[in-house]
Every structure is written in structure tokens, then in C-alpha cells.
Amino acid sequence: MINLEVPKKAKALVNQARQAATEVFRPISRKYDRAEHAYPSELDMLAALLDGLNTSGEGGAGAAGVRRGDDDKGGNRNGGNLLTVLGTIELCWGDVALLLSMPRQGLGNAAIASVANDEQLARFGKLWAAMAITEPDCGSDSAAITTTATKDGDDYVLNGEKIFVTSGERADAVVVWATLDRTQGRAAIKSFVVEKGTPGFEVVRLEHKLGIRASDTAVLRFDNCRVPAQNLLGTPDIDTKKGFAGVMQTFDNTRPLVAAMAIGVARAALEETRGLLAEAGVEVDYDKPVNAQHAAAATFLRLEADYEAAYLLTLESAWMADNRKPNSLEASMAKAKAGRTVVDVTLRCVELAGTLGYTEDSLLEKWARDAKILDIFEGTQQIQQLIVARKLLGKSSKDLK
Ligand SMILES: Cc1cc2nc3c(=O)[nH]c(=O)nc-3n(C[C@H](O)[C@H](O)[C@H](O)COP(=O)(O)OP(=O)(O)OC[C@H]3O[C@@H](n4cnc5c(N)ncnc54)[C@H](O)[C@@H]3O)c2cc1C
């Protein structure tokens, strides 16, 4: 039986994350939304605290990722994925862009934690790692990657351009997806750790964005960039039967995390709006049918129901990862539901709050701007739905595009 109550052992972590969100993130949330591209130095101390949580094996509150060990003894376990999801929800209640700016909590860190061997983990585990998949001509269809990695002696030589890389400027390293051989399709796509300062690796520019402005988003160029062969994560073998399995495994861990980010932002907007409705004398009554309530209360109840569904799907997908159950379907379901929900909830909350919701006097307008990316990166809404449909109908990516 799956028990989706928050486990007792998560309470301390959830409380700590909530405290950090309240005392560190919220007070500087507006400041760094306005000061796009300025590094929030207030995060350094908090990052050190998170490092402690992650090395204690208690899971963290960022995108640290979770390692699959060989110690599976079966039975129900609430492990690192669930704890990280719960911590992420709390911190994103504070500010999602600041979470994305946390040192050493990049999506590249999740990739390293998930697929690196022990030697690589020792070398890269302490770095802050961004993740670079997207290219000018390749977004949703990540099999179309054109960045190449050519073996030359004991090195790989990388050539290509990556766009929209979160923490691409601030991170110490980037996990770069590149193909070993374009003629062999998706099976030839591998990920490589490229450290800052490696000759041939250049940050070209930063983007100006609608939301998550505190987070830097960079264009990167690799021009004959040479990395040791040992920087390839996973196996260098091109196994056309397994296809994308190696690199795609990362998504099973990271999609629940992005869903958790969406849950945190949605919860923030709902809490704020509940307070405003109460101030306006609108009562939300859980015992009365919605059609007998104020229209604003009826809308609020519908939003909360969506929020709950997204929340439970997210916990389920993380719980499955912890319990070694294949969770690609559930991770995509959670990401799709939570991404759609956070966009709807935050915009409706702006609407319910009237003019206040549209001004910078409240954070509601910021959350509405921050929400959209959560329905885009780590696979858009449409792509998640495509994955869910393929899994449910038993179709391959060739059958259903
Ligand atoms: C702020 C920000 C941060 C990001 N951070 C990162 C990062 O750290 N690393 C990284 O690698 N990338 C990152 N991205 C890129 C992001 O992952 C891509 O934008 C996303 O995957 C979509 O790719 P695309 O923009 O090329 O859109 P496209 O793939 O061109 O899609 C355009 C539209 O068509 C839809 N569509 C595409 N294919 C189908 C289909 N088969 N069926 C139905 N609809 C379809 C899409 O859902 C979308 O609505 C980031 C993007 C942003 C905006």
C-alpha cells in the first residue's frame, strides 16, 4: 500500500526548509526579481546548510538528485527523492527562482548523482552543475541534438551550441548532452561533464526573461572543447536496443522535482489568496456545495482540488523512485498536472485578488510570471502528455509523435 502521508522523519527537514523560505527567500524575492542577473549572495550560507543535509543522506531541498544503491531490501521506504521533493516544495513556496539559483543544486547535480560512477561522483560531487540539452534547433525533440563529441586519444572533443541553460554562467560545471555519432540516432547521445575554464567552453550571453529572473539562463558555446574521456557519464557504448535509456533515466528523478517546484509556487499563491479572500469577507466552506457559495470561494475550491491532485501525483512519483519502481509514467503525469495547475492557479489568484494581484504590492503577479517555465522546462506540457499517451497505449516514439 502506498502511504502518502508526510512521513514523520521528514518533518524536521520540511520545517527547516519552510524556515529558510520564510526568513531568507521571501524577504529578497522582489529584490532579485528586479535585479535580474545579480547573484543573490544571501544564498551562500543556505547552500552550505543544504550541503550538510545532502551529505547526511537525509535528502535535501534542491535538485541534488538521488543515487540508486544496491541496498534494496524491499518494503515501503520514504527515501531521498521524497524528502527532496518535500523540501523543494517548501523552498519554492518561498521563491522558485532563488531555489534555481542555489549553489550545487543544479539539474546537472541531479544527473551526476543519478548516473555517475563512484570515481566521477568523488570528482564532481562537490561541484555546482548546470544541465545543457537544448540547442537552437533542438528543444522538445532531444534526439535531434547536433552537438558532437569526437573521441581523440584519451579525450572527447566537443563542438556545438547550447541555449537556455539554467545557471549556465554561475555553475562550476555543465553536464552537456552530445552525440558520439549522428548516424546512430538517440543511442549515441551521451552526457559529459565540462568544467568552467576548460579551453573552448564559452558563456556567450544571458537571457532576459518573463519570470524566474533571479535565475541566470545562458547561451553556451563549445568550440573544440577537450574533456577527459572519464568525464562521460554512464557507458560510452552505443546500444541501439537500449536507445536513450541512460540519459533519460535522469528525467525520472528530475521531473518530480520540477513538479514539486510547481506545487510550492501554487501553494504560495493559494495561501496568499485565501488570506485576501478572508479579509474581503469571503468564506471558503468545505461542507457546503460550491454552487451555494460565493463565486470566488467556488473558484478557490476548484483550484485547491487541482493543487491536491498535482501534489499527490508528485509525491507518488517520488515515492516510486525511492522504492525502485519504474516511474517514467508517473513522473510525466506529475509534471504535466503540476505544470498546468501552477499556471492556472497563479493566474486565477491574480484574477481573484483584483488590482492588488496585478501590482508589485503583492507577489502574486511575480508568481504568475514564474509559473510558466515550470510547464516548459524538463519537457513541456505537450511532451509530457505525449509520453503519458505512449506509455498507456503501449506505443513507441515512432508510432506516436
Ligand atoms: C527559463 C528557461 C530555462 C531553461 N533551462 C534549461 C536548462 O537548464 N537546460 C536545458 O537543456 N534546457 C533548458 N531550457 C529549455 C527548455 O527545456 C526548452 O525550452 C523546452 O524543452 C522546449 O523546447 P523548445 O523551446 O525548443 O520548444 P519546441 O520543442 O520548439 O516546442 C515549441 C512548442 O511545440 C510543442 N511541441 C513540440 N513537439 C511537439 C509534439 N511532438 N507534439 C505536440 N506538441 C509539440 C511544445 O510543447 C511547445 O509548446 C530552459 C528554457 C527556459 C525558457
TrEMBL record:
Keyword list, A-Z: FAD, Flavoprotein, Oxidoreductase
Pfam families assigned to the protein according to its UniProt record, in alphabetical order: Acyl-CoA_dh_1 (PF00441), Acyl-CoA_dh_M (PF02770)
Keyword Flavoprotein: yes
InterPro entries: Acyl-CoA_Oxase/DH_mid-dom, Acyl-CoA_Oxase/DH_mid-dom_sf, AcylCo_DH-like_C, AcylCo_DH/oxidase_C, AcylCoA_DH/ox_N_sf, AcylCoA_DH/oxidase_NM_dom_sf
Acyl-CoA oxidase/dehydrogenase middle domain span: 130-225
Cofactors demanded by this protein: FAD
GO molecular function: acyl-CoA dehydrogenase activity; flavin adenine dinucleotide binding
Acyl-CoA dehydrogenase/oxidase C-terminal domain: residues covered: 242-393
Source species, domain of life: Bacteria
PANTHER family: ACYL-COA DEHYDROGENASE, ISOVALERYL-COA DEHYDROGENASE, MITOCHONDRIAL-RELATED
Annotated family: Belongs to the acyl-CoA dehydrogenase family.
Protein name in UniProt: Acyl-CoA dehydrogenase
